[in-house]
Write a structure and sequence with these properties.
49% strand, four-stranded antiparallel beta sheet, alpha+beta, Alpha-Beta Plaits
């Protein structure tokens, strides 16, 4: 199975969205390499980066599910190289 490495960048603007976000991320935990969260109290937001190694469709599905959560902004960057 070909996989890609990707980073999903998330900006949390509504803290009420965090519980739903964590549930979604947990359901994809086998593909997650690591995650980093940075609170930014000055702007009342949190910045989260999630590194993944997964099939392209899986990464897109996860990004889409996160994008449907109110109070979040999400963007995904894919590596150019495929791995297996």
């Amino acid at each position: 199975m070909d996989t890609r490495v990707a980073v999903i960048s998330i900006i949390v603007e509504d803290q009420n969205a965090v519980e739903t976000l964590n549930e979604v991320l947990h359901s994809y935990n086998t593909f997650i390499i690591g995650r980093m969260g940075i609170p930014y109290p000055k702007k009342h937001i949190c910045i989260i980066s999630v590194a993944l190694d997964a099939p392209h469709d899986t990464i897109s599905a996860l990004s889409g599910k996160i994008g449907k959560i109110n109070g979040l902004s999400v963007k995904t960057a894919f590596s150019k190289l495929k791995s297996n």
